[in-house]
Amino acid sequence: MEEIIIHTKLKSQIHITENNNLPAIKLIVTTTDPSIIKEIITNTFNKKPILIQPEFRDPIIALGALINKGIMARDKETGELIFL
Fold this sequence. Notes:
By secondary structure, the chain is an alpha+beta fold. Helices cover 26% and strands 30% of the residues.
């Protein structure tokens, strides 16, 4: 089994957008930590995965964007959020 190293310092902001007129999510990651940069490059050359923790800067605004782009909606009967 392949070893996967998890870095809690490597976080990604999620941007809700469109691509070819379809709802899309863009992950943007920036780091200046030399050990993480080294690991990302090494894993890229060795075709190994990296793990990124996605996060919303403002969850309420993100929820509005997800609904606006047609990715999520409120169920009319239960009021719960559902993926479309």
